[in-house]
Amino acid sequence: YTICRVKGSSMNWLRYLLVCCCFLLPAQVPAQEQTTLRPLSIGLMPYLGTRTLLANYQPIALALERELKQPIQLNTAPDYDTFIKRVVDGEYDVVVLAPHYARLVTRDYGYSPLLVHKAPIRGVLITSRSKPLYSTEELRGQTIAIAERSALLVIVGALTLSDEGIKEGSDYQFVETVSHSSALHNAISGKSRAALISYSTLTLAAPELQKDALIWRELNTIPGQFYVAHNRIPPERQKAIKAALLVFEKTPDGQQFFEKTRHGGYREPTREDGEFLDRLLPETRRQLSKVLPK
């Protein structure tokens, strides 16, 4: 059976989800085949609320289990720092994460890139519809809600705002929240003047949040999320995982997944991706200095 596990969380709803998984799994995979391999652990970056995140990626877990004939565990973490530490410590076999984190762990911590979401990550500044922004100057003395300061869209967003004449710390402050959804809520409720989140987060938000949210402007566009595999997974098995993901992309469930999440499908990582992300590695390491090994 498929196990969806959230280390660091004791949500009661998870028990219900586990029961559901038992009924959803295909009957044609023999039980003895399921137990020949240990579960494949997939780590999901906690950019959404836990329930939404696991529900969104459950179709991938079910598809991989069918193709690989191996149990799949979906895992996330209560916050970004804990998640990155677990990735660096090698707690996950496969990880879905932001591109600059992926570049860091493939360069320094024994992972290999598999695939990238085709759709780029669009960093957008959101305000409450009842209190729109009209210029960058209106952000002076204000706060911008974010999910995580080390997130690439925040790193690049801060550089963009700096180029336009306002600097973090002296002119405005970032305020971290537990997820992109929480950052969005902060902006709509007026706790922060704006939120810097990914466009895909807005499309997945509750209808009442979408109704009250207004996109002021797009700040940046960066490569989509990466899928990386830890190098303890043999190369042939990594190829099998990659092939299974590509099969999933072509199925009705896969098409529904990509339509819902707006991730656009899969593509191969490119040299241009690497060159762009390498330029941002020093700032990525600086932002993650408190969680990376010394």
Q: Tell me which oligomeric state these chains represent.
A: single chain
Mean pLDDT: 88
How is the biggest beta sheet arranged?
A: 7 strands, mixed
Q: Which value, in Å, is the CA radius of gyration? A: 19 Å
Strand order of the largest sheet: 1-3-2-4-11-5-12
Question: In terms of structural class, how would the helical and strand content be classed?
Answer: alpha/beta
Number of strands: 12
Please characterize this protein's 3D structure:
There is one protein chain. The protein has 294 residues and is α/β, with parallel strands linked by helices. It is 45% helix and 22% strand. It has twelve helices and twelve strands. 40% of the residues are buried.
Task: Write a brief structural summary.
By secondary structure, the protein is an alpha/beta fold.
Give a quick set of tags describing it:
alpha/beta; 22% strand; seven-stranded mixed sheet; 294 residues
Topology diagram in text:
Elements: E1 3-6, H1 13-24, H2 31-34, E2 40-44, H3 50-68, E3 72-76, H4 80-88, E4 94-97, H5 99-108, E5 111-117, E6 121-128, E7 142-146, H6 152-163, E8 172-176, H7 180-189, E9 194-198, H8 199-204, H9 207-212, E10 213-222, E11 226-230, H10 235-250, H11 252-261, E12 266-267, H12 271-287
Parallel strand pairs: 1-3, 2-3, 2-4, 7-8, 7-9
Antiparallel strand pairs: 4-11, 5-11, 5-12, 6-9, 6-10
Helix pairs in contact: 3-10, 3-11, 5-12, 10-11
